[in-house]
Amino acid sequence: MNPEKAFGIILRKYRGMVSLSQEELAYQSNLDRTYISLLERGLRRPTLNTIIVISRCLNKKSSEIVQEVEQLLNEHHTGEDAN
Q: pTM of the prediction?
């Protein structure tokens, strides 16, 4: 798993937890809805500014989101080693 895919998984998780559609998140973050979709599918690499803006809209600290991405990557990496 790459960092973009991990970020997308975490983004979708938190967006769902606050019951925002991609369109609503896009509006609140001043980003395009298609960009949110690309991020969630792991097809775009978010900038630091994007992570900060999205985190605020999700009522999370950007450091928490980055930490979860790292945890997911570590879990996936550990799982690959076991195979």
A: 0.88
